[in-house]
Write a structure and sequence with these properties.
- The chain is an alpha/beta fold.
- The chain contains 27 helices and 22 strands.
- The strands form five sheets. The chain has an eight-stranded mixed sheet with strand order 13-20-19-14-18-15-17-16, sandwiched between helices.
- A hairpin with a 2-residue loop joins β7 and β8.
- α9 packs antiparallel against α13 and α9 crosses α14.
- It is elongated.
């Protein structure tokens, strides 16, 4: 054998060498799983095409609304502005999408019932009227149209019949179908769902957007497979919203009128009482004109005292009202007391808030008659009442502080002038106080009368602050791009799912797919990587095993091929291994972890490579289970190895000479398997086998033994204990890593001298990391002796 270049080279530790994931590795994995990837993508795309073709076209109808400032159309006042304060656009959008508006649309258009059969026909072409009366029973309804009349079958089996032109109510569903026409099915199947569920569906399908952020405009859109229904729903939502908005504004104006009427009566009664008290005082004291009778100082003192008393009364009254406002107030009647307060009457903001509270309490009382406290509308009005009460408390407290400041100022003025004006007649002071009360009540009464008339005018008017700019028209074309988007999405999803399936299969694949994996699994040196040997006529791994092996004898049939050079590299590696061991490697067992890993092909090609270098080599077919070498080398199976070991044949009679190529300088002999035996392992482990190996080692330079796979039988392990070395063969893309690791561990357990490993069928398409092999063997000589690079 060839001598070593470095006899002191220590074996490498490959336990931590694991190449990182690379783009070539990913591409190699994709190539290996191409069928699964393509199949998965094809299934997803086919399903997408099937779903797209069965999908009914969708139509979209849109209407545009203008939301203007809410104000009185006639002569607006501050009170009406407070009663109808404008809401933000976002709030109006939420009202448009509210469940109550959706319920109005469901009730008005009869959306509880949807047409199942026939598909693709508009409801208007089948029914003149179709709506639910109360709570229609959910389920399937069947309508059969005859020439003169029609019948309806409810989900509970109840039937009804009526002539055309007369609506029929069955199980809460009112319907009036049109007479059948040519080309349209006479039987109609309807599906009725609960009104609440349909309203939620309509609400979810409704889209409300703002075309321009700075414009008080909203775009309301609805999609449906029925173009006429899409238009009808969009317009119905707009009309329901406008109707509810106007009704709410009218309710606010009506509540304001009722509130003002009550206050006019209260203030009118107080005015009459004040006028009566003044008249009685004048008659009792014979007061004609106190201002003409008293001097300027007396008049000043009387005015200050009257104003001070008025302030004290207002402070006391306002303090009591403030304490009441901070306490519990459960009805609209509690707020009428606030209106009689002069302080509230003079403070326009307080008056407006009190009126809003009265309106809100009235609305809460109305809702409380038929709704619970958990209802969203009741909860909303309750929050409004609490907010208004909080605002009322803040403003009343501020007004009280203002009155306190005024009282302090008056006290200071009275203290300064009290010494000089102690002689002011009591009659003048009392007259001034009575006169002031009459003037104050008269002004307040006049103001309330004016606002009452204005509110009555507003109640009678239509407050049109919401307008339909563009009503929804019946769409003539379905939404474009849906099918194309479905196909694009399906294709992308199919490719992603295919890649996921491919990578999952790749991750679960435990087969050896690189030289690095062999090194990491076995912890043994890799002596050679044999490139994939192309099969003749593209037959691949078809045909008989002997035929396939014979076509792979590259050292004989294709001596300049990359695979032949790889076997010669194996021969060199074995020579280096022998030099490092400092012991001759005379007998070599060739085995594998699993069947069809290429061990027999490796054994024959290695024997030929050694022989062509001038060595005397004998190839022994030690596979007694499924021997094929005698067919590959065209000899007889018997007599052979088993016959020699059993003593029925002499060694000389079983040795066959194998012809070699002309350039070979050595010899190659072959010992076939022999006749079948029932106990191959015991026969190979016998003393006769050890004696035979000793004789062959004395006669030949190398003895190559082809043995069965380790995962099948123990024949190779039995011979390994007697041979000088053992060579483990693995096949890229076929040998499972766990089987290979188990085989190596078993050999180490019995003390076998494993020389190294050989990786066969190496190809970049099978390599897990996408590496390319074989190009280093393409350098050869031409016929004329010149060198050429075959890369």
């Amino acid at each position: 054998m060839e001598g070593p270049r470095n006899s002191h080279t220590a074996p490498r530790d490959y336990s931590d060498e694991q190449p990182a994931v690379s783009l070539p590795g990913i591409l190699a994995a994709v190539r290996r799983q191409a069928l699964w990837l393509a199949g998965t993508a094809a299934v997803v795309v086919a399903f997408t095409i099937f779903y797209t073709l069965r999908q009914r076209p969708v139509y979209e109808a849109s209407t545009t609304l203008r939301l203007a400032e809410q104000q009185n159309a006639g002569n607006p006042t501050d009170l009406l502005t407070a009663l109808s304060a404008p809401s933000s656009i976002e709030t109006e959008i939420e009202i448009l999408r509210s469940l109550r508006v959706a319920q109005d649309v469901v009730d008005s258009l009869g959306l509880q019932a949807s047409v199942l059969v026939p598909q693709g026909v508009a409801r208007s072409a089948l029914f003149r009227d179709l709506r639910g009366v109360g709570d229609a029973a959910p389920g399937a309804y069947v309508v059969r149209r005859e020439p003169d009349d029609f019948s309806v079958t409810a989900p509970d089996g109840h039937q009804g019949r009526a002539p055309y032109g007369a609506p029929l109510v069955v199980a809460g569903l009112e319907l009036e179908p049109l007479p059948p026409v040519e080309g349209v099915a006479k039987t109609i199947e309807l599906s009725v769902a609960p009104a609440s569920a349909v309203a939620e569906a309509v609400r979810g399908a409704l889209r409300v957007t703002r075309p321009q952020p700075n414009a008080a405009m909203v775009l309301l859109s609805y999609r449906s497979v029925d173009p006429q229904l899409a238009s009808a729903v969009a317009n119905a939502v707009a009309q329901s919203y406008i109707a509810r908005r106007n009704e709410m504004q009218k309710q606010q104006a009506r509540a304001g009128v009722q509130f003002l009427e009550t206050q006019v009566q209260v203030i009118g009664a107080e005015l009459r009482e004040a006028e009566s008290a003044l008249e009685q005082f004048r008659r009792a004291r014979f007061v004609i004109d106190p201002e003409a009778q008293a001097g300027d100082q007396v008049k000043r003192l009387a005015d200050l005292r009257a104003e001070r008393e008025q302030l004290a009364a207002e402070r006391s009254e306002l303090g009591a009202l403030l304490a009441k406002a901070r306490g519990a107030a459960d009805g609209a009647g509690d707020w009428t007391v606030f209106a009689s307060s002069p302080s509230l009457a003079k403070n326009q903001a307080l008056s407006g808030i009190v009126q809003q509270l009265s309106s809100a309490e009235t609305e809460r009382s109305r809702l409380g008659t038929w709704r619970t406290a958990a209802d969203p509308d009741v909860a909303t009005i309750q929050r409004t009442i609490m907010l208004l009460r909080s605002r009322l408390v803040e403003l009343a407290a501020s007004q009280l502080r203002s009155l306190d400041a005024q009282a302090q100022g008056l006290d200071s003025a009275l203290a300064r002038s009290d010494a000089r004006l102690q002689q002011i007649p009591e009659v003048q002071v009392r007259y001034a106080r009575l006169r002031r009360q009459v003037d104050l009540d008269g002004q307040l009464y006049t103001l309330l009368q004016t606002r009452l008339k204005e509110s009555q005018i507003s109640e009678a008017m239509e407050i049109a602050n919401i307008q339909v700019v563009d009503p929804a028209m019946v769409p003539t074309r379905p939404l474009g791009g849906r099918r194309l988007m479905n196909l694009l999405f399906g294709t992308a999803s199919g490719l992603l799912l295919g890649l996921l399936v491919a990578f999952m299969r790749e991750a679960s694949d435990t087969r050896v797919r690189s030289r690095e994996e062999v090194l990491r699994i076995t912890q043994l040196p890799l002596l050679a990587a044999i490139p994939r040997i192309p099969a003749p006529n593209g037959r691949g791994r078809q045909g008989e095993p002997a035929e396939r092996i014979e076509t792979r004898l590259v050292t004989r049939h294709a001596p300049r091929s990359p695979a032949a050079e790889a076997y010669r590299a194996l021969r060199t590696s074995l020579a280096f291994s022998t030099a490092r061991r400092k012991a001759p490697l005379k007998t070599l067992v060739v085995t594998s972890a699993e069947p069809e890993d290429g061990k027999t092909t490796t054994a024959v090609n290695l024997a030929l490579a050694l022989a062509e270098q001038g060595h005397r080599v004998v190839l022994v077919a030690a596979d007694q289970r499924r021997p094929v070498l005698h067919k590959v080398l065209h000899t007889e199976r018997a007599p052979g190895l088993s016959d020699v070991l059993r003593g029925t044949a002499a060694l000389e009679t079983v040795i066959h000479h194998v012809p070699l190529p002309d350039h070979a300088t050595g010899t190659l002999d072959f010992v076939s398997a022999g006749r079948p035996v029932p106990n191959p392992a015991e026969l190979l482990g016998s003393a006769a086998a050890r004696d035979l190996l000793s004789k062959l080692a004395d006669r030949y330079d190398e003895v190559i033994l082809d043995t069965p796979p380790l995962s099948v039988v123990t024949d190779a392990a039995v011979l390994a204990t007697e041979a000088d070395g053992l060579l483990v063969v693995a096949r890229m893309g076929a040998t499972h890593g766990e089987e290979l690791r188990r085989a190596v561990e078993e050999l180490a357990g019995i003390g076998a001298r494993v020389v190294g490993t050989v990786l066969t069928d190496v190809h970049h398409a099978e390599d897990r990391y996408g590496y390319r092999y074989g190009h280093k063997y393409h350098y050869s000589s031409d016929e004329d002796g010149s060198s050429s690079d075959g890369r």
